[in-house]
Amino acid sequence: MNDLFAFGSAGVMDADDRYGTTGDMKKTQYVMQLLGFPGNADTLKCLLTAGEKGIEIESAVLDMSMHQQDTDDYRHISPFGIVPALREAKYTVAGDAGVMCFIEGRGLGNRLSPRNAGVLAEQMYWIDIACNNVAPQLETLMQERVLGPMSAADYLANNGAVATALAELAAPLDAVDGQLADRDFIVGDYSYADIHWTAYIHLLKLAGEHAQVEERPNLRSWFSRIKKHKSFSGQDLVAFELLPTLDEIKSKKLKDVVCGEF
Amino acid sequence: MGFFNRKKVNKVLQMDLAGVPGTTQTDKCLLMAAEKDVVVNLVLGGGGHLGGSEVPLLTEGSTTVKGTSGILAYLDVRGKGGQLNPKKAAFLGHQNYWGQVAIKFGEPAVNCLMHEIHYGPIMDNDHIVNVERCSMAEQELEQALFELDKQLEDKSFIVGEYSYADIHWTTVVHLCELLGKLNMIIKYCNVERWYDRVKARSSFDKLPTLDEVKQQQLRFVA
Lengths: 262, 222
Hints:
The complex is a heterodimer of chains A (262) and B (222).
Chain A: E1 32-36, H1 41-53, E2 57-61, H2 72-77, E3 85-88, E4 91-94, H3 96-106, H4 117-151, H5 159-179, H6 192-206, H7 210-214, H8 217-228, H9 246-250
Helix pairs in contact in A: 1-3, 1-6, 4-5, 4-6, 5-8
Chain B: E1 14-19, H1 24-35, E2 39-44, E3 49-50, E4 53-54, E5 57-60, E6 63-66, H2 68-78, H3 89-123, H4 131-151, H5 164-178, H6 182-186, H7 189-199, H8 210-221
Parallel strand pairs in B: 1-2
Antiparallel strand pairs in B: 1-5, 3-4, 5-6
Helix pairs in contact in B: 1-2, 1-5, 3-4, 3-5, 3-8
């Protein structure tokens, strides 16, 4: 069995089972390791959360275009093949829900979830819309336009599936555009809802559907704000810059999260 | 009474929940409400659709909450006692992981079996059980229970203390019981012991019986 987390500086423990060759901890706490894929929205959500919360991450690619999430090596880490997976020392967790809240719990600054019950529920609702109504269509678009051609030069896109996905996307995109009519962020203040939607909208644009965003003025304005949004924890970092370009997805490159000064 | 002597009024919260008992989405809300001492008036019927599925709707005064995850979070904050989320990041991460496993693997499987075995015949006199679908659903459940059993080794609840993860899985295993699939549960001794513990909690009494599920479904369809 190969240990897929045997990479980077965090992969080497010293004689006392501490991080790094000297056992030094960085001022931003432990360096975590993330196994994910640049074309996977859930991986991007975790990178965004780490950037917002000032947590450094060393990333490695789990090649989902070649179904590496179904290999025995990965299933040893995540038995259901849920992506991404994160490790800190002896602790491992998989899936965006688990990884994001672990990063937040270990990170800096205020909590991302609203305290008010009604606003918290609203955040969860918009996350549900993103995950249930947008994610499946995004996966289709990414598969047909990006990942499929990556795995086979003669890949033929299923235009019917693409058309269906775009038709299904209209309602949730209209809904979030309406929600953003009088708000800077989805539930007022920046929250987990913005992180989820940022990942999906970014991939939507990389899949060639810029018009879906440009034609919705509130969504367009929100995305412009997101692209300049400084780290929630006060780090000198814009989390959006951690997201991959289309070329980086095609060359299977995932960025590390390096936190600078405040 | 002085300004600094005000005490929090200990009143019982009452809310309306529109949902379909015998589905994991609604049953989780009933369970959380009971855990948090919130009285819910159950109104039969869904709150709308989310991703193609019927979802519950909670109302408290002028506040409306749609969808299971929003309702669970709302009840947890508004209800009595501390929040069910673990404070330690490591346990919180695993709680959310096991919640995601329940939602992605356990619930679709058990909801599929409920549809094929109980709801289908109620809604359609000519319903024929899709044996292949049921078989695939049972295989998914087996894998999920196998992994859950390992997680529950040396633990009272899924991440140690009672949490959202237990709420998610209680409804899955409860529906297995309503389906007459207890044999799937008792194969896994840690899961069986855990289920005995959650059944001993007073909140478990708020989950519907099979007769109640069938009667509610008849009324929902009518």
